[in-house]
Amino acid sequence: MEITSSLWFLLWVYALPTILNAARHRKKITTKNKKQTAMKKLILFTFLFTMITIGAKAQKTTNFGVKGGVNFASISTENHLDPRSKTAIYLGALAEFSIGNKFSIQSEILYTRHFMNAYHVVYGGTFPRMEFTLDYIQVPVLAKFYISKNISLELGPSYNILLNDKIVDISNNNASRSDFAKKDEFSGILGATYKFKKGFFTSVRYCKGLSKTIFNDKINSFQFGIGFMF
Protein backbone atom coordinates (compact mmCIF):
# COMPACT_ATOMS: atom_id res chain seq x y z
CA MET A 1 0.00 0.00 0.00
CA GLU A 2 1.41 3.36 -1.01
CA ILE A 3 2.12 5.74 1.87
CA THR A 4 1.21 9.29 0.96
CA SER A 5 3.22 12.39 1.77
CA SER A 6 1.01 13.29 4.70
CA LEU A 7 1.58 9.90 6.32
CA TRP A 8 5.32 10.25 5.85
CA PHE A 9 5.13 13.66 7.53
CA LEU A 10 3.32 12.21 10.53
CA LEU A 11 5.71 9.28 10.84
CA TRP A 12 8.63 11.75 10.74
CA VAL A 13 6.98 13.90 13.43
CA TYR A 14 6.92 10.81 15.65
CA ALA A 15 10.36 9.52 14.71
CA LEU A 16 12.35 12.74 15.12
CA PRO A 17 11.42 13.40 18.77
CA THR A 18 12.11 9.75 19.57
CA ILE A 19 15.58 9.96 18.00
CA LEU A 20 16.40 13.24 19.76
CA ASN A 21 15.14 11.92 23.07
CA ALA A 22 17.27 8.79 22.77
CA ALA A 23 20.34 10.88 22.00
CA ARG A 24 19.81 12.94 25.14
CA HIS A 25 19.47 9.89 27.42
CA ARG A 26 22.86 8.23 27.40
CA LYS A 27 22.89 7.43 31.09
CA LYS A 28 21.57 4.20 32.53
CA ILE A 29 17.78 4.14 32.56
CA THR A 30 16.07 2.93 35.72
CA THR A 31 12.92 0.80 35.81
CA LYS A 32 10.87 3.83 36.89
CA ASN A 33 12.24 5.93 34.04
CA LYS A 34 11.50 3.13 31.58
CA LYS A 35 7.86 3.08 32.67
CA GLN A 36 7.60 6.88 32.40
CA THR A 37 9.21 6.85 28.94
CA ALA A 38 6.93 4.07 27.76
CA MET A 39 3.84 5.96 28.97
CA LYS A 40 4.92 9.16 27.22
CA LYS A 41 5.56 7.30 23.97
CA LEU A 42 2.20 5.55 24.24
CA ILE A 43 0.37 8.87 24.66
CA LEU A 44 2.27 10.44 21.77
CA PHE A 45 1.75 7.42 19.52
CA THR A 46 -2.00 7.45 20.27
CA PHE A 47 -2.29 11.05 19.11
CA LEU A 48 -0.27 10.42 15.98
CA PHE A 49 -2.10 7.19 15.15
CA THR A 50 -5.38 9.12 15.30
CA MET A 51 -4.03 11.69 12.88
CA ILE A 52 -2.69 9.05 10.51
CA THR A 53 -6.10 7.40 10.43
CA ILE A 54 -7.77 10.71 9.71
CA GLY A 55 -5.17 11.57 7.07
CA ALA A 56 -5.65 8.24 5.30
CA LYS A 57 -9.39 8.94 4.98
CA ALA A 58 -9.09 12.57 4.02
CA GLN A 59 -6.06 13.00 1.75
CA LYS A 60 -7.73 15.67 -0.41
CA THR A 61 -8.25 17.91 2.61
CA THR A 62 -4.69 17.81 3.96
CA ASN A 63 -2.66 21.03 3.86
CA PHE A 64 0.94 21.69 4.84
CA GLY A 65 2.54 24.91 5.97
CA VAL A 66 5.36 26.72 7.75
CA LYS A 67 5.22 29.16 10.65
CA GLY A 68 7.40 31.25 12.93
CA GLY A 69 7.24 34.05 15.44
CA VAL A 70 8.18 35.28 18.89
CA ASN A 71 7.95 33.44 22.18
CA PHE A 72 7.67 34.94 25.69
CA ALA A 73 8.26 32.42 28.48
CA SER A 74 8.03 32.59 32.27
CA ILE A 75 8.23 30.25 35.25
CA SER A 76 6.60 30.29 38.66
CA THR A 77 9.16 29.73 41.39
CA GLU A 78 9.58 29.73 45.18
CA ASN A 79 13.36 30.24 44.99
CA HIS A 80 13.18 33.97 45.84
CA LEU A 81 13.54 34.79 42.14
CA ASP A 82 11.24 36.88 39.97
CA PRO A 83 11.57 35.52 36.41
CA ARG A 84 10.80 37.92 33.56
CA SER A 85 10.50 36.84 29.95
CA LYS A 86 12.67 38.14 27.13
CA THR A 87 11.93 37.92 23.43
CA ALA A 88 12.83 34.58 21.85
CA ILE A 89 11.79 32.81 18.65
CA TYR A 90 10.02 29.72 17.39
CA LEU A 91 9.73 28.24 13.89
CA GLY A 92 8.66 25.02 12.24
CA ALA A 93 6.24 23.12 10.01
CA LEU A 94 2.63 21.96 10.31
CA ALA A 95 0.02 19.72 8.70
CA GLU A 96 -3.73 20.35 8.96
CA PHE A 97 -6.26 17.56 8.36
CA SER A 98 -9.74 18.91 7.70
CA ILE A 99 -12.84 17.01 8.83
CA GLY A 100 -15.73 18.89 7.34
CA ASN A 101 -15.93 22.69 7.26
CA LYS A 102 -15.86 23.38 11.01
CA PHE A 103 -13.25 21.03 12.46
CA SER A 104 -9.69 19.87 11.77
CA ILE A 105 -6.67 18.26 13.44
CA GLN A 106 -3.35 20.10 13.24
CA SER A 107 0.05 18.57 13.96
CA GLU A 108 3.18 20.67 14.26
CA ILE A 109 6.90 20.23 14.85
CA LEU A 110 8.57 23.39 16.16
CA TYR A 111 11.94 24.59 17.35
CA THR A 112 11.24 26.87 20.33
CA ARG A 113 13.58 28.93 22.52
CA HIS A 114 12.71 30.12 26.04
CA PHE A 115 14.75 33.11 27.22
CA MET A 116 14.28 34.62 30.70
CA ASN A 117 15.98 36.86 33.24
CA ALA A 118 15.51 36.29 36.96
CA TYR A 119 15.61 39.04 39.58
CA HIS A 120 16.31 38.38 43.26
CA VAL A 121 13.16 39.22 45.22
CA VAL A 122 14.88 39.50 48.60
CA TYR A 123 17.39 42.17 47.58
CA GLY A 124 15.10 43.97 45.13
CA GLY A 125 16.40 46.28 42.45
CA THR A 126 16.27 45.98 38.67
CA PHE A 127 19.55 44.18 38.01
CA PRO A 128 19.01 40.59 36.84
CA ARG A 129 20.66 37.87 38.92
CA MET A 130 20.29 34.91 36.57
CA GLU A 131 19.65 34.31 32.89
CA PHE A 132 17.93 31.15 31.59
CA THR A 133 18.06 29.82 28.01
CA LEU A 134 16.23 26.62 27.00
CA ASP A 135 15.82 25.17 23.50
CA TYR A 136 13.02 22.69 22.76
CA ILE A 137 11.53 20.62 19.99
CA GLN A 138 7.76 20.93 20.47
CA VAL A 139 5.25 18.47 18.98
CA PRO A 140 1.72 19.87 19.44
CA VAL A 141 -1.39 17.93 18.36
CA LEU A 142 -4.30 20.37 18.23
CA ALA A 143 -8.03 20.24 17.63
CA LYS A 144 -9.14 23.27 15.58
CA PHE A 145 -12.69 24.61 15.70
CA TYR A 146 -13.67 27.09 12.98
CA ILE A 147 -16.06 29.74 14.23
CA SER A 148 -15.99 31.42 10.81
CA LYS A 149 -14.31 30.87 7.45
CA ASN A 150 -11.18 32.72 8.56
CA ILE A 151 -11.10 32.35 12.36
CA SER A 152 -10.36 29.17 14.32
CA LEU A 153 -9.77 28.26 17.96
CA GLU A 154 -7.21 25.55 18.80
CA LEU A 155 -6.78 23.34 21.83
CA GLY A 156 -4.57 20.36 22.61
CA PRO A 157 -1.43 18.89 24.19
CA SER A 158 2.21 19.30 23.26
CA TYR A 159 5.12 16.96 23.97
CA ASN A 160 8.35 18.96 24.32
CA ILE A 161 11.90 17.61 24.16
CA LEU A 162 14.79 19.62 25.60
CA LEU A 163 17.71 20.16 23.21
CA ASN A 164 19.89 22.54 25.23
CA ASP A 165 19.73 24.40 28.53
CA LYS A 166 21.97 27.06 30.05
CA ILE A 167 21.84 29.20 33.15
CA VAL A 168 24.17 32.18 33.71
CA ASP A 169 24.61 33.55 37.24
CA ILE A 170 25.17 37.24 36.58
CA SER A 171 25.65 37.96 40.28
CA ASN A 172 28.54 35.45 40.38
CA ASN A 173 30.91 36.66 37.64
CA ASN A 174 28.67 35.19 34.88
CA ALA A 175 29.29 31.63 36.01
CA SER A 176 27.28 29.25 33.82
CA ARG A 177 26.10 25.64 33.90
CA SER A 178 23.82 23.33 31.96
CA ASP A 179 21.85 20.10 32.46
CA PHE A 180 19.67 21.68 35.15
CA ALA A 181 16.32 21.18 33.37
CA LYS A 182 14.40 17.97 32.81
CA LYS A 183 14.80 16.38 29.40
CA ASP A 184 11.16 16.51 28.36
CA GLU A 185 7.82 17.94 29.41
CA PHE A 186 4.15 18.18 28.52
CA SER A 187 2.17 21.37 28.03
CA GLY A 188 -1.38 22.35 27.12
CA ILE A 189 -2.11 24.83 24.34
CA LEU A 190 -5.00 27.24 23.84
CA GLY A 191 -4.90 29.62 20.90
CA ALA A 192 -6.52 31.22 17.87
CA THR A 193 -5.65 31.61 14.18
CA TYR A 194 -6.80 34.08 11.54
CA LYS A 195 -6.40 33.12 7.88
CA PHE A 196 -5.78 35.77 5.22
CA LYS A 197 -6.08 35.34 1.50
CA LYS A 198 -3.45 33.49 -0.59
CA GLY A 199 -2.40 31.15 2.23
CA PHE A 200 -1.07 33.57 4.84
CA PHE A 201 -2.19 33.40 8.47
CA THR A 202 -1.42 34.80 11.90
CA SER A 203 -1.79 33.06 15.26
CA VAL A 204 -1.57 33.64 18.99
CA ARG A 205 -1.48 30.98 21.70
CA TYR A 206 -0.85 30.35 25.37
CA CYS A 207 1.19 27.30 26.38
CA LYS A 208 0.58 26.11 29.94
CA GLY A 209 3.23 23.87 31.50
CA LEU A 210 1.75 20.62 32.79
CA SER A 211 4.93 19.00 34.12
CA LYS A 212 7.80 20.32 36.22
CA THR A 213 10.89 21.43 34.30
CA ILE A 214 13.20 23.90 36.10
CA PHE A 215 13.88 23.52 39.83
CA ASN A 216 10.57 21.62 40.11
CA ASP A 217 8.72 24.54 38.50
CA LYS A 218 6.69 24.75 35.28
CA ILE A 219 7.25 26.86 32.17
CA ASN A 220 4.42 28.91 30.66
CA SER A 221 4.65 30.94 27.46
CA PHE A 222 2.84 33.17 24.97
CA GLN A 223 3.52 32.78 21.25
CA PHE A 224 2.71 35.27 18.49
CA GLY A 225 3.44 34.33 14.90
CA ILE A 226 2.73 34.29 11.19
CA GLY A 227 2.74 31.49 8.67
CA PHE A 228 1.92 30.28 5.18
CA MET A 229 -0.14 27.29 4.00
CA PHE A 230 0.92 25.74 0.68
Describe this structure in words.
The structure is a single chain. The chain has a single domain (61-229), classed as Porin (Beta Barrel). Helix content is 20%, strand content 53%. The protein is of the alpha+beta class and 230 residues long. Helix 1 runs antiparallel to helix 2 (31-57). The chain has helices at residues 5-24, 31-57, and strands at 62-75, 81-85, 88-99, 103-120, 130-146, 151-169, 175-177, 184-195, 200-209, 219-229. The protein is built from two helices and ten strands. It is elongated, with a radius of gyration of 19 Å. The protein starts with a helix and ends with a strand.
Question: Keywords for this structure?
Answer:
single chain; Porin; eight-stranded antiparallel barrel; disordered N terminus
| Proportion of residues in extended strands | over 45%
Number of helices: 2
* Secondary-structure class: alpha+beta
Distance between the termini: 26 Å
Q: Report the radius of gyration as a whole number of Å.
A: 19 Å
Seen as an oligomer or otherwise, the chain set is single chain
Mass-distribution shape:
elongated
Q: Architecture in CATH?
A: Beta Barrel
Helix and strand sequence: HHEEEEEEEEEE
> In total, how many domains does the architecture comprise?
1
Walk across the major sheet and give the strand order.
1-3-4-5-6-8-9-10
Give the helix proportion (percent range). 10-25%
